[in-house]
Amino acid sequence: MTRFDPAGPLRGELRPPPDKSVTHRAALIGAMAGGPTRVTGYLDSEDTRATLRAVAAVGAQVREGESDDRGGMFVEIEGVGLRGARPAEIDVGNAGTLLRIMPGWLAGQPEGDWTFDGDESIRRRPVDRIATPLRQMGAHVECREERLPPLHLRGAPLHGIEYEMPVASAQVKSCLLLAGLLADGETAIREPLWTRDHTERMLAAMGASIRRESGALIVSPAGRLEAGDIPVPGDFSSAAFFIAGALLVPGSEIALREVGINRNRIGLLAILSRMGVEMGGAHETGRAMTVHEIREPGPEPVATLQVRGASLRGAEITAADVPAAIDELPLIALLACFAEGESVVGGAAELRAKESDRIAGVVEGLAGLGADIEGRADGFAVRGTGGLRGGTLDARGDHRLAMVGAIAGLASREGAEVDGFDAVTVSYPRFERDLRGLLA
Ligand code: S3P
User: Fold this and answer.
1) Atom of ligand 1 nearest to the CA of 173
2) Among all residues, which ones are annotated catalytic?
3) Ligand 1 centre from 200 Cα, in Å?
4) Ligand 1 environment, Cβ below 6 A
5) Distance in angstroms (rounded) separating the CA atoms of residues 86 and 230
6) How many CB atoms lie within 10 A of CB 12?
7) Which of 20, 48, 97, 129 is the pocket-test mutation for ligand 1 (most atoms within 8 Å of CB)?
8) Minimal CA–CA distance to 305: which of 345, 252, 264?
9) Is the pTM of this model over 0.85?
10) For 173-222, how does the pLDDT look when each residue is reduced to its tens digit (9 = 90+)?
């Protein structure tokens, strides 16, 4: 149990840790390239270490360099080329992104066998969403009960397909983009709603041909990917915990520097603006949030986010809002407890297939802290009561629920005990230290 007492305000500056999604992709795509790829700010966390071990297992050479002050490290990856992966058994740990993206690359290898397996939570995460389209491309894929890990692959020649994705998932899209590089002919992917496009940006920077045409994403076969330098932006999803903390604790004022602001990731900002948070640019004074110092050091834009305490009102969140805010929806439940009026999140059944069933976890967790919250099949409804009593929250082995519990404790009247707080090591090992640093 880790305890978070009512505290605050949050003050000062922070560079949040490097982005988890971009880090996974840097290792995988670096391993597919010919020559050395240098990653600046490779996130040092359990999930992303599993990806480094996975690429090393298939033959890439990984050299770790110096660590930086935000929990990142310099990593050089000598790729094996698009078709040079050697057979391996891959333990993904808790990393769903690794489990769902890497098979896209391996499915099209000229020969070899690969098995993907992981922890207890990974064994409950559906992989039929990648197995179905990969089989349509000609891949040999098997999984337990036709839908769960372990997942077994045998390399086979692939051909391009046109695929309409039934669920909006950046992991599935990325898997198919990688498979499309090794296929014979073009692969066209249609998403029901736009999801994060980190893979597209990185592949394009490394010389792949990817275009959008009449709403479809089309990838052409490639002979090779050019190795290069990949700077990893700060993780907006990690920064989001401090955004919520600063909004909820009166008198707070923080600056979060070098945060990735890819438009497919920052749906939280649009939702906050509907919840009454006034947003502005550098020269607009008096706003609760400003976004400034926008730069593009690589394929991903970054900015400084300045946040202060603010009052909130309830809002309705529908399916169209979900992909760009998917990992922040548990935090929205917390914010909604402090808002005036009711908030409803719908169209978010995908939350049940994350590291834990995040609908059940957030509903039980926040109810245990005194929230007026009710679960629905595809989301939840929260009646804001202007605050939260406090109590105990079970993180259920889920890093994001653990961090929601910590912020809830700070903003509550009596504090919160977070059971299973250690889960934060999956994406943000330094979270507690960074948070306490802003409270000092
Ligand atoms: C991710 C995509 C999202 C997100 C996950 C990371 C990615 O999952 O929830 O934390 O890196 O592509 P889905 O693609 O399953 O929605």
Assistant:
1) 14
2) 327
3) 14
4) 21, 97, 169-171, 174, 196, 326-327, 350
5) 24
6) 12
7) 97
8) 252
9) yes
10) 999 999 999 999 999 999 999 999 999 999 999 999 999 999 999 999 99
